[in-house]
Amino acid sequence: MAARELYVGIMSGTSIDAVDTALVRCTRRDCELLATLEHPIAPELRGDIVAISQPGDDEIERLGPLDRKLGALFADAVLTLLAHTGYDKGDIAAVGSHGQTVRHRPPSAGNRTPFTLQIGDPNTIAELTGITTVADFRRRDIAAAGEGAPLAPGFHAAAFAHKGKSRAVVNIGGIANITLLSETRLVSGFDTGPGNTLLDQWTRRHNGLAYDRDGQWAAEGEVNTALLEQLRRHPYLARRGPRSTGKEAFNLAWLQSCLLSLPELEPRDVQATLAEFTADSIAGAIISAETAVDEVYVCGGGARNTDLMRRLYRLLAPRHLDTTAALGIDPEWVEAAAFAWLAWRTMSGLAGSSAAVTGARGARVLGAIHPAGEVPGNSAVR
Ligand SMILES: Nc1ncnc2c1ncn2[C@@H]1O[C@H](COP(=O)(O)OP(=O)(O)O)[C@@H](O)[C@H]1O
Ligand SMILES: [Mg+2]
Hints:
By secondary structure, this protein is α/β, with parallel strands linked by helices. The chain has helices at about 45-50, 60-85, 120-130, 140-145, 155-160, 195-205, 215-220, 225-230, 250-260, 265-285, 305-315, 335-345, 355-360; strands spanning about 5-10, 20-25, 30-40, 90-95, 100-105, 115-120, 135, 165-170, 175-180, 185-195, 295-300, 320-325, 370.
């Protein structure tokens, strides 16, 4: 194996549950997932990320150190992964770091000057790992008038498209996004709305837990149709074309505003309704897609939520529903693998985005490259 075909992807999504890393061998022919590691995020650091993710005071003073600390955490995650595999930093062509999204204000939300911001200083990653680091993937697409998201569809197409099949790949992270594949063609991709985020936020508030394990709590409750109708009125769900969203749009403040007009509901019935709403928004996007979908494959942490998967199964019947494990990649590593793939695209001078997905003026080579290591003596500035 040519060692310089190896890339490490780092992903920490809006759930802020952990840093996922994936070691992937990428070539023009195929991608192979070689090793993975979930690296913890300390509760205090998580608290700082949650705090900076909404407007507040002293943002630059808080953002600067957090950016550096996350860079160090991501570097640590990469080094731990490599220590587990026996590969050396010199074997790795590049790291692809998504970064931690702290704000996402895309054009589809009506922002006059759209922007998106992912932190986790790539200079620090390159310095601490000694590996070339590609990062800041989304902002080039925003600059080209795109949504900056989703970026995983290209990888979904490379890994999961199949001749003779019409597939949807659904990533259920904090936010959910789908990729529509007609045979080997990438038709479109967009965020459908909430993934785990509402379920996580409501569970944290009422039970003090990070998430509703296997959706057990939601399964105990009953769906409240009045609340479900209210939730379905969220303006994001009526949008068409390239679109992306975040916790800026789907959060407890919005949920509270929907609950105002309703009589006291049992918290577990709210959880059941949030689960139904989440499944419904994903299934609705698939059912009304511009191409007929025969097979649906789920990835992201939501694939492990048995209750959510049951709801999707019911809403999407008779379509075939499974997780991406059936196609060879365990659901929890798809996004990290996608950022290894995106780093490979950038290092190869290939586009990482698709205009059909993000709505940008065109496909672009994404990200900024932060070269590894010390410069040779004769190229140093004197
Ligand atoms: N066993 C499980 N039962 C229910 N939900 C789960 C389970 N395992 C993971 N999750 C959900 O997956 C989320 C993490 O998914 P992930 O794909 O990492 O999202 P993100 O990309 O936003 O970080 C958790 O916050 C949780 O909601
Ligand atoms: Mg995660």
